[in-house]
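Below is how a single chain appears once it has passed through the pipeline. First comes the sequence as given, then the structure the pipeline wrote out for it. We keep one example in the README because the format questions we get most often are answered faster by looking than by reading.
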Amino acid sequence: MVSFAPNAKLRSLVVPKQPRAAAVVDEDTIPLPPKMPRAFRIDWASLLKRVFAVDVLRCVKCDGRRRVLAVVDEPAAVKKILEHIGLPSTPVTTAPARGPPQPSFAFDET
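Resulting structure:
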């Protein structure tokens, strides 16, 4: 049985070596280390599409792609915009959280 685990003897013959990034060298500067790969991150629109199967960036009228122009996160500005377009600006009141119903067991005391 052939194993290609990290310390396997034949691994170097099968698995290609990772290319080395060339360091930039200038006469007056210190050589820079190779760039580290950035952490993988999924944007919010892709997460919504993955979880709910809804593409929030697809226009329902022309089937084109929308793009985010701005993000408004100041509560006063959000309230003013919602009131201007005629949408409710106050949050919906919700009932307090409660635990699951407890089963009622009738024990016969004998």
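The mean pLDDT is 81.

See the next section for the split statistics.
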